[in-house]
């Protein structure tokens, strides 16, 4: 279902495109998250751990940029992950104003278990697209995602 707004063709097309992109992303995200099937960590915590799993250590700012979360939200997520023993904050040596966030052994262990499930779910969801459709989706997503 699209917008009920009765504007110009350009306005209606823009709104309908945004609605479809948002609904598709939300739908895929929901199905992927349900396949991980964990109550141990939240979705936000998973994405922070995922960023660290592939590129530890990172600063809180880097993590926020990778997972598209605000600084305050990232601080809370990292606080909770630290309490659970999944990450460790280490003050930067070059610039002591910043903390580097490291994945702990416990953090790596949970991601060793969860990431393969996540990856399989993503592949299952995206298998509907051909290689050419993947390239086109990536090209269009990059085009609309870039700031002018």
Provide structural commentary.
The chain has 148 residues and is mostly helical. It has 2 domains: 1-36; 39-124, Orthogonal Bundle (Arc Repressor Mutant, subunit A). Helix content is 67%, strand content 8%. It is built from 6 helices and 3 strands. It has helices at 9-36, 43-55, 60-67, 71-83, 105-126, 131-145, and strands at residues 58-59, 87-91, 99-103. Strands 1-3-2 form a 3-stranded antiparallel β-sheet. Helix 1 packs across helix 5, helix 2 (43-55) packs across helix 5 (105-126) and helix 3 packs across helix 4. The longest helix is centred in the first third of the chain and has 28 residues, at 9-36. The radius of gyration is 19 Å and the shape is globular.
């Amino acid at each position: 279902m699209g917008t009920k707004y009765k504007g110009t063709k350009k306005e209606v097309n823009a709104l309908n495109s945004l609605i479809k992109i948002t609904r598709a992303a939300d739908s895929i995200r929901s199905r992927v998250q349900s396949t991980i099937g964990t109550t141990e960590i939240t979705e936000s915590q998973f994405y922070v751990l995922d960023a660290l799993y592939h590129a530890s250590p990172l600063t809180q700012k880097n993590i926020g940029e990778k997972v598209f979360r605000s600084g305050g939200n990232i601080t809370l997520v990292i606080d909770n992950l630290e309490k659970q023993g999944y990450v460790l904050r280490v003050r930067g040596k070059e610039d002591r104003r910043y903390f580097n966030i490291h994945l702990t052994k416990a953090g790596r262990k949970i991601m060793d278990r969860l990431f393969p499930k996540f990856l399989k779910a993503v592949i299952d969801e995206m298998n509907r697209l051909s290689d050419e459709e993947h390239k086109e989706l990536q090209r269009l997503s990059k085009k609309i995602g870039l700031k002018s």
